[in-house]
Amino acid sequence: MAEVELRRISKMYERQQVVNEVSAIIAPGEFFVLVGPSGCGKSTTLRMIAGLEEISAGELLIGGKRVNEVPPSGRNISMVFQNYALYPHLTVKDNILFGLQVRKVSKQDQVKRLEHAAEMLGIAALLNRKPKELSGGQRQRVALGRAIVSQHPICLMDEPLSNLDAKLRGHMRTEIRQLQQELGITMIYVTHDQVEAMTMGDRMMVLRDGEVQQVGRPLDVYNHPANLFVAEFTGAPPMNTTQAVWRSNGAQSGVELSDDPSRRFLPLALGFGPQAGIKDGTPVVLGLRPEALQPLEPGAVADESRSLLVSVQGVEILGSETIVEFKLGDKLWKAKWNGQWPCRRGDLVRVGFALEHVSLFDSQSGKNLAITAGREKGEILRCVQ
Amino acid sequence: MRTVVKSLFSVAMSLALLTGCSSGTSTTGSSQPGQPAQPGTSETKPAGNTELSFFYPVAVGGPLTKIVDGMAEEFNKENPGITVKPVYTGSYQDTTTKIQAAVQGKTPPDVAVMLSTELHTMMDMNAILPLDEFIAKDGGNEYVKDFFPGFLANSQVDGKTYSIPFQRSTIVLYYNKAAFKEVGLDPEKPPATWDEMAEYAAKLTKDGRWGIEIPSSGFTYWMYQALALQNGKNLMTEDGKKVFFDTPENVEALQYWVDLAKKHKAMPEGVIEWATVPSDFLEGKTAMMFHTTGNLTNVKNNAKFDFGVAFLPAKKNYGSPTGGGNFYMFKGTDAKKQEAAWKFIRFMTEPKRAAQWSIDTGYVATRKSAYEEEIMKQYVKDFPAAAVARDQLEYGHAEFSTHNNGKVTKALNDNLQAVLTGKADAAAALKKAQEEADKVLASFNK
Amino acid sequence: MGELRAKWKVNVYAWLLLLPSLIFLLLFTFYPVWQTVILSFHQADLGSPEPFFNGIDNYKQMLEDDVFWKVLTNNLWFALGTVPTSVALALGMALFANKALRGKGFIRTAYFYPTVVPMIAVANIWLFIYTPEYGALSHVMDWFGKGDMNWLGDQSNVMWAMIFMVIWKEAGYFMIFYLAGLQNISQELYESAAMEGASAWTVFRRVTFPLLMPTTMFVSIIAFTNSFKLVDHLVIMTKGGPDNASNLLLYYIYETAFSFWDQGMASALTIVMVVLLLAVAAVQFFGLDKKIHYN
User: Fold this and answer.
1) Does chain B touch chain A (at least 3 C-beta pairs within 8 Å)?
2) CATH fold of the domain at C65-291
3) Are residues A107 and A15 in the same domain?
4) What span, in angstroms and rounded, lies between the C-alpha atoms of B1 and C68?
5) CA distance linking residue B88 with residue B70, whole number of Å
6) What distance in Å separates the CA atoms of residue B400 and residue A132, rounded to the nearest whole number?
7) Can you give the residue range of the structural domain that contains A212?
8) What is the model's pTM?
9) How far is Cα C78 from Cα C88, in angstroms, rounded to an integer?
10) Domain containing residue B273: CATH number
11) Are the beta carbons of B406 and C261 closer than 8 angstroms?
12) Chain A residues touching residue C195 (CB < 8 angstroms)
């Protein structure tokens, strides 16, 4: 079986730790995304799985067998490179068949697999062209074609969409995901783009400076980021944050916004406070996702503790939604509202939020203070047909 | 990438064209690789000063440019109205090429040293001045007669004198006295005949040492000419219009040369490099060698063993060709400059200076009176070998020189080398050389 | 009308921009070539004080000239001996120098340094190496009991000696082009091949070599023209001897022009050489070029 297991895998260059004890078990048929900003070690991790980089410490198991010392070709893995790694002097056909020819697969079998892949990818008409005669998307498909004909149960992809324009990227996301499900292969996919991670992955692993930040299903990660870094990394626009101090004085507990000149106090009770073991005066970071901040009707009764009166700094109307920017203390916050909101700079608006959307992070460690037992399971709304 | 390769290619091609063509066109006069000395940059001399450009080559080791420049400076001091500007022009071949270009560009040097054998070629080009007028005005034949006839032979055609001998050499036999002793030969009795030389050479040959080496690269014809002279007469007529390569005597001479290697096994087979023969001798890799007297100082300074210098051995008679460079003057320069140039030539060939030049370089002093000079007498006394070359000059002859000298010489050299490398036999090769030379010389014999 | 005028103006401007280089090209390339062509139809040697038109006599004579055929065949052997070997060696050295982890700089310098040495100096060095009895090569040959091999003085050895020396001199230079070519090949291609488990030989044959073809093409042309251009060493080492065994076309042109002073013949020989080089280059460019992949 094509299960991939990483056991405390590390990579050292000279004295520099690039990947630090990364562990994960990737199930057969799973679409697993390694995501993080550049330099976080995601590509290095992938290359260690591929066998292109030596593993400095830890163990890599594929199908239950240790493969640290097995050369790339012995790992039953295919790989799609960032720049597709197409041989510029070979035709599409020869590019796709290169691996099969090397592995001396029979001619008949080659033809069969080629036809199958070309049909799946819709590139049958391009087989006799050279890579330079292809568009970016077509090259991408050829690279996928190679992975398909190899019939390896595991496929690695290193930022395969980064060279495509936005529209095509969106299209290819779906296509790759579909392909993976159709073929039933295990996919380990590296990207710096959290949208790809959210939309494509069964699970994602967020990395930063070679350390694992969080592993989980995309929505779990989104809704319950393990720490401030993950919170700010996921979502577009990312989560709004601001410095605050925890105040707990008897019945009322909540946060005092340190960046706010009026040092506004927001009472937070549910799930926080003594239950979470936060001491009075602890510096914390308060986080709210843009879509959690919704406008209140002008006439509605404003609950001071669940709303903020803010002055609009900027507006982006995107058609289906509007992004409203305002300042909270010295931080620029963004709110995402459905529909078109013709606000103007300087308008005063009151935005409200629900208590359950508030996240609190330890300002020192960045750890999420509010992950409760109930929420950890995560309830993702099913799509109702 | 494709365009880059194409443009790189076109650059490379045009370079090839340029280099390919410049060799062809520089002779047409459209360009002048030789930098004729530009007059008009006088510094301190008064108006009416005559400036002379003087081209000279250097063909042997040592700081010769310094010596020549020093002599020119001395001349300038002694002659306030004249400034000689010496221009070092490389090898003999380079010098000829540069002068040739300058002549075609109508800016010939005022005076130059060139190979004595360029005589006929330069006459064909109508480039050089006969010097008889100057000689007549300046004391007449007394001056000319003082030069050794062997040297002067390359200067004169049809009773006219075209050049004055300057840095002249001849071939002598160098031998290793220690090696002679080692094999029981009398070190004071070098071989005097061909038979003796072959016999001695065979005796001297042992593992790691040859009996004799006669160089055969570059100046093949010169060495061969020595053998030919010893077996009778010179290879060409004085007027340079006829050659005698394929006479039975000359075939015999070549056969003797080949036999030293093939029959007597006393000399390496194949072509022997001119420049390595003296090193071979100094290293003890050969016990005897034919080489120019120009190497005398070199051998004297570097030999770690006792060595001797002797006449080249005789067959019918002793014989050795001369070699080296003479002073020439060129047509197309103005009369005043010609006067000055003649003065310079006279200055450079004064007995005292000829003697010093000989001591400094190893060239043979060109004039009999030079050997009467005190410094020369002393030098010969201390180093008797220096006199051998002079004494041999009694049997010295003009160096091989004909019309269209380059081509005739090549025909001879090529065929000699063919024989020496065992690709042809002596008689056939010399016959071929004769035919080729006759063809080249045909147009001069009309 | 106005449009025509504008177009004319643009053209004049373009020509003006081209003028300086055009003048140099005319003056130093086309004019000399033209002069050479003209002179090749003249008798202009020592026997004829004024050059006169003699039709194709020079070319006829050339065909009957044994030495011409000898130097031409020599030159072809010389090209055949130097071009493929030096190019192959350069490729090998580049692959090695590119791979070597330690002493990369040293290896590159070591390979490259013969190129920096002027040909005249190289010729002098090798003159010593080839010296019989005590030359460096003779010491090596001594172990085989052949210390007295006369490399330059023997007609059958001398060409090999020259070819070997020129390969030594040139390979390092060509290596630089190959190194640049190798740098241009994406590392991804090699990694991709490694994922497929392709052997080093397969990778070379199917990836590296085809992708280096533009470099190979360029280098071969340079090597080929060099085999006709490099004659400096002959002046120092053999003067074309023994008996023309090491003589090459360009040196023969030099001899004809500056030793025989036969300018008509020298021009005719020059034309032959130029045409020959152009023909070979044309074959390489318009024939082989189509089969080469360019990025």
Assistant:
1) no
2) MetI-like fold (1.10.3720)
3) yes
4) 39
5) 13
6) 70
7) 4-232
8) 0.77
9) 16
10) 3.40.190.10
11) yes
12) 50-52, 72-73, 77-79, 99
